[in-house]
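Sequence in, structure out.
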Amino acid sequence: MTGTVIGPSDTGTDTDTAANTAVRRADSSPIYVNPWLSWGDAARKIVLMTSLTSASPEAAGLATRHRLGALQGVFAPQRLRRTVFAAHVFNCVMLLPFFLVPGVLYYWFAMRRFPDFNRKRAAQRLHLFEEGLVVHPPSGGDPVVLRWDSLRLRQEIVQRVFNGVPAPTRYVYSASAPGWGAVQITEFYEQPETWGPWMQDAVTRAQATAVLETLGEGGTVEFGSLSLSRTAVHAPKKGALPWPQVREVRAAGGLVRVMATGPSGAPVLWSNNLARDMTNLYLFLAIADNLRKEHSA
């Protein structure tokens, strides 16, 4: 997924011009899948993008108990770059001979946050299965089990730029399900650019049929800041925009925009929402695109 630098002219941005910083939102123009694609396509996609290792006995047991199906991918914690690793070791070595207590505190509270200096954190894993996931929360604690068919997933992908130099991208996926629990999955785990979109695709495949059935029965499905019905897209304080008037629904620059067709036939912005406030973003985009095309045919 590509990112765009958000400038002062963009609505709803977070730009600190005094410090000469900008925010690069990497969750722009996500490539979502058709909800009617077979699961096998997604499974083959992830096997090609990550080395598949066996699940831990704990994760395998939880997957069996909750009927999560076959293992699709395993992601370990990211390791520090050599320069950062060396800097932490240097700081600790320099502090210990002269300031024992600060040196010990630095090791315990700063260095042990990283898997490079903490065996317990290094053993944490993100396991993706056909029907759900098992993940050790990056903050610690017991593993959390969630199924794709009930998962509510929100994403925020941000890269800050300081004086023209991009900082590491921040990935935060907030996942929850009624009766199952909640967890934040971050770039603590390697390859977030792989497992993030893959989770969104899995949710789309697992929930698309139920969403379409609800819409077909005349219901409305809420996706965070926006809702969809068979006849219109709905936004708080904006009301409803009938599908024949919807020109485009797209995500770009950390925003989800709904464009209407103006009186002159030109596109007009109808609704602007932060992507991080959208639940199951890829599912929303797939269903919205399907409904828009259905009414424009």
